[in-house]
Design brief:
About 2% of the residues have low confidence. Among the domains are: 144 residues, Arc Repressor Mutant, subunit A (Orthogonal Bundle); 72 residues, Alpha Horseshoe (Serine Threonine Protein Phosphatase 5, Tetratricopeptide repeat), CATH 1.25.40; 135 residues, ABC-type transport auxiliary lipoprotein component (Rossmann fold), CATH 3.40.50.10610; 101 residues, no CATH class. By secondary structure, it is of the alpha/beta class. The two termini are 54 Å apart. Strands 8, 9, 10, 11, 12 and 13 form a 6-stranded mixed beta sheet that branches. A 4-stranded mixed beta sheet has the order 3-2-1-7. It has 32 helices and 13 strands. The radius of gyration is 28 Å and the shape is globular. Helix 18 packs parallel to helix 20, helix 20 runs parallel beside helix 22 and helix 31 runs parallel beside helix 32.
Length: 708
């Protein structure tokens, strides 16, 4: 079944994957969008030609439409995807559309389903050169869809309020306010809903945001209704809000800047600005800055400043927005006191993109000047541009944005952008370090899709170049430590590099986390546990750190604590594949085979039968004595290996659980030759406990040089 998305960035998909090149062309998507919006009635050929080829005469336009329809049918392999002759329409048995799902949900009164379907403005960021009528049509449809979405959100908010579901009502009003931030009526309703939940500080913050937007966008004062609502909320409580606990000394968190650009894809730039500002402020002596990953847990969420301050243990928040249009950027920022929710400072900056590094420095200095305890005048944050090539910098930000998703697709796209950055500026050390990160993760079974002998040499070249360019680059040492650990099996070099990265950046939670994983693999349990606890303290809300903590606890044989930690990660991120796998491994290591099988079967239904999960499924079945089913999983891995890379490790784990040790040792020899990263954990892996005294086991790892 094909599925057409026109709410948000348009795309045609089959089973969640983009389809043929012809279908991705702008005229193809425009034709499909026109027919999707026309619905069962279809659209006349004359109308389609007028929208898509206004410059062509009738005969040429008719020929182009016929050719486009023919090309799409051939590309999609579906002759009947279009129905009708004079009036064309999409065949609903072959192609579904999100716009039909959206309107159908609204027509049957299911506002929640309609809102869930809406993933962005109609044909967001899409245009066709030389087709003004099509542009006018798309703009009208965009406005109509947005209007219907706003009505659905308001209906949901009002229904929730009538039912006494105050938090839900506040959430719906918040979503509506994000769509229509200058609407005073919506802002007042959102403020009142927030105040009804007890979030008085959040309600007042909405008023301040409205006031700032009115000033910046319209050069007008705040609406009187909003100001009056703010006064009512202030007067409704005679007691001042309780102060959130703060860390000793000045502390701040930089919350993810909101992308206000017309193009949704510019989110990479607003995220990049947030990370760069965090890094600059982290260099200020005496100022504690919450980590990027913990701060990013609040991205897209409406949480009161007091609550964020309590959870991150900071006294102030930096929040704001970034609008990037062409070569111009507008950054609006404010500093908010987490004890009171009141604003200490705010400013708007309009700059050319080429001045982005100077803007980051100016912004950091203004924030430091607004912080307490006399930091202003004692320190002046400076930004050392990581590159002098602006386009290389934007490619780097794009690469970071995708690499941090930690999926194979994200790492692959991240590498592509980072390679473009290094082509534009071969001396861009951070971009080379980013390439080392991407290649090393793609070459490790826990994350990637490439054989280690393919990916890891590329990672080594990239990290060598990064450190050649900047021998004080903490990221370079951290990833060189990872490569030495997972691929070179050079324990001394790996530990030295992790420690050097931490020396250069004591607050670098990624280096602390990987060092903890390394220490656990070396069976240095107490050191590993102390190190991962420190990483959690540095980055308390980071799900990757929490997940790694569960993995370290597993290696250290603290199974109950590991299960608690991994379960909490999955409650917040239920689609995290590695956390699922690590939890099943922990069930197996603690002899809870039935629970392991139940968990892995649920996950397979939820996320699919990917190789790492199939490995744990086969192990659980084998350990429960269900040998035929375990053997069937091995056969499934073999079949999958005909279509994609499947590491022999997955089969080996099942063979081991089945007691087929001769076959397992043969596979282990192969994995040694392939330099599998999972062999680096041989000392601490609970699965190996049963064969540690086997002469073949000892000989295998001596031959591989792993015993050093």
């Amino acid at each position: 079944m094909l599925h057409l998305r026109v709410l948000g960035t348009p795309a045609l998909e089959s089973d969640g994957s983009p389809v043929g090149a012809v279908a991705a062309q702008r005229k193809s998507l425009a034709l499909l969008a026109l027919l999707a919006r026309a619905g069962p009635a279809g659209a006349s050929r004359d109308k389609l030609m007028a929208y898509l080829w206004p410059e062509a005469d009738g005969e040429r336009a008719a020929h182009r439409l016929t050719q486009l329809v023919y090309s799409l049918r051939r590309s999609l392999g579906a002759e009947s995807v279009f129905l009708g002759v004079a009036e064309l329409r999409l065949n609903p048995t072959l192609i579904s559309t999100d716009i039909a799902e959206f309107t159908d949900a609204l027509d049957r009164g299911d506002a929640a389903a309609a809102v869930a379907t809406y993933q962005g403005p109609f044909l967001d960021g899409f245009f066709i050169d030389g087709a003004p009528e099509f542009e006018r049509w798309a703009e009208a449809e965009r406005g109509d869809c947005a209007r219907r979405l706003r009505a659905a959100l308001e209906s949901l908010a009002q229904t929730a309020a009538r039912r006494g579901e105050l938090s839900a009502a506040a959430d719906w009003w918040q979503r509506l306010a994000q769509l229509d931030p200058l609407n005073a009526r919506v802002t007042v309703a959102c403020m009142e809903a927030a105040a009804a939940t007890g979030d008085r500080a959040g309600a007042l913050q909405l008023a301040r945001t409205h006031e700032r937007l009115m000033r910046d966008e319209l050069d007008a004062p705040a609406e009187r209704a909003v100001l009056e609502a703010a006064e009512r909320i202030r007067a409704s409580s005679a007691c001042p809000p309780a102060a959130a606990p703060k860390a000793a000394g000045p502390s701040v968190a930089v919350l993810p800047f909101v992308n206000m650009s017309p193009e949704q894809e510019n989110e990479y730039f607003s995220d990049g600005m947030t990370e760069e500002l965090t890094n600059v402020l982290s260099q200020v002596p005496g100022l504690r800055v919450a980590s990027r990953t913990s701060a990013f847990t609040f991205k897209g969420k409406s949480v009161a400043a007091t609550e964020i301050g309590d959870r991150l243990k900071v006294g102030a928040l930096v929040e704001g927005s970034v609008r990037k249009v062409g070569d111009r950027i507008r950054v609006t920022a404010q500093l908010v006191d987490t004890a009171t929710g009141y604003q200490r400072w705010s400013e708007t900056y309009d700059r050319k993109l080429e001045n982005v590094f100077a803007l980051q420095e100016e912004l950091a200095r203004a924030i430091v000047s607004a912080l307490p305890l006399g930091l202003a005048g004692l320190v002046t944050p400076t930004v050392r541009p990581s590159t002098s090539v602006l386009d290389a910098y934007t490619y780097y930000l794009r690469g970071r944005f995708h690499s941090l998703k930690r999926s194979v697709a994200g790492l692959t796209l991240g590498i592509e952008y980072l390679e473009q950055a290094t082509e534009l500026d071969p001396e861009y050390a951070l971009a080379h370090a980013g390439l080392a990160e991407g290649w090393s993760l793609r070459g490790f079974e826990e994350f990637g899709d490439l054989p280690p002998l393919v990916a890891m040499p590329r990672a080594k070249l990239a990290v060598a170049r990064a450190l050649e360019l900047d021998d004080r680059l903490a990221e370079g040492y951290a990833w060189r430590g990872v490569i030495a650990f997972l691929f070179d099996w050079d324990w001394n070099r790996s530990e030295a590099d992790f420690l050097r990265a931490i020396e250069l950046r004591p607050d670098y939670s990624l280096a602390h986390t990987w060092y903890a994983v390394f220490l656990a693999a070396m069976t240095r349990k107490e050191e590993a546990l102390a190190r991962i606890r420190h990483a959690v303290e540095l980055d308390p809300l980071s799900l990757p750190v929490q997940g790694a903590s569960g993995n370290v606890l597993y290696r250290c044989r603290h199974y109950d604590e590991a299960l608690t930690r991994l379960t909490s990660v999955l409650e917040l991120e239920p689609d995290n594949p590695r956390a699922h796998v690590w939890r099943v491994r922990t069930y197996i290591a603690s002899q809870r085979f039935e629970e392991a099988l139940s968990a892995v079967q649920r996950t397979a239904e939820q996320l699919g039968r990917y190789p790492m999960l199939l490995e744990q499924l086969g192990r659980a079945l084998a350990l429960l004595g269900r040998r035929e089913e375990a053997e069937a999983v091995i056969a499934e891995l073999h079949e999958r290996g005909t279509r994609e890379r499947v590491s022999p490790w997955h089969e080996g784990s099942i063979l081991f659980a089945l007691g087929r040790l001769d076959d397992w040792f043969r596979l282990m020899d192969l994995l040694v030759r392939q330099r599998s990263g999972r062999l680096a954990f041989f000392r601490a892996e609970p699965m190996y406990d049963a064969v540690r005294g086997d002469p073949r086991f000892l000989a295998l790892f001596r031959r591989a040089g792993l015993a050093g």
